[in-house]
Input
Amino acid sequence: MNQFKAAEWINARGKILLSAGVSALAALLFLSSPSRVQAVGAQPAGDADAGKVLFEKRCGGCHSLDTNKEGPALRHAYGGKAASVSTFKYSKALLSVGVTWDDASLDKWLTSTDSVAPENDMDFQVANATERSNIIRYLKTVAGK
Ligand code: HEC
Output
C-alpha cells in the first residue's frame, strides 16, 4: 500500500513537471516564433481614435483631410511623397526634400519639422511621443494604408 502511494506520488509529480516543461517549451516557441515577431512589427503603433481627436484639436487650425487651409490637405500624405498636393503652395524647403511620409519620417517631422526640411513653413511640433504615434496612426488609417 505504501509503495503504491509512493509510486502514485512520483507519477503525479512527474506529470506536473512534464506539463510545466511543456508549457515552458510552448512559451519559448511562441516567444521566439518569427511569425509573432512579424505580427508585432506589422502592427502600427498608436491609437487612431485618439489620433483623430488630437488631429482635430492640434492640426485642424491649419489642416483638414480634403481641403487646403494654411497647410495642405493631409488625407493622402501617409505613404506618399512630401509636397505632392499639386494645388498647395509649398515652401521650397519641403518641395526639395524628397522624403516619403511613413511612421519614421512623420515622427521626425512632428518632433521638429526643421530636422526634416530646414526653413519649411510649418511652425508647429508635438512634444509627446505617444501623441505623435496616435496622430500618425490616424493619418495612416485615413490614407487607407
Ligand atoms: C500653424 C499651422 C500648422 C499647424 C498647427 C500644423 N501644420 Fe502641418 N503644415 C503646415 C504648413 C504651412 C505646411 C506646409 C509646409 C511647407 O510647405 O513647408 C504643413 C505641412 C504638413 C505636412 C506635409 C504635407 C505634405 O503634403 O507633404 C504634414 C504631414 C503635416 N503638416 C502634418 C501636420 C500635423 C499632423 C499637424 C498636427 C499635429 C500639423 N501638421 C499642424 C501648417 C501647420
In short: Helices lie at 2-32, 34-42, 48-59, 92-95, 103-111, 113-116, 129-142. Residues 34-42 have pLDDT under 50 and may be disordered. The chain has two domains: 2-42, 48-142.
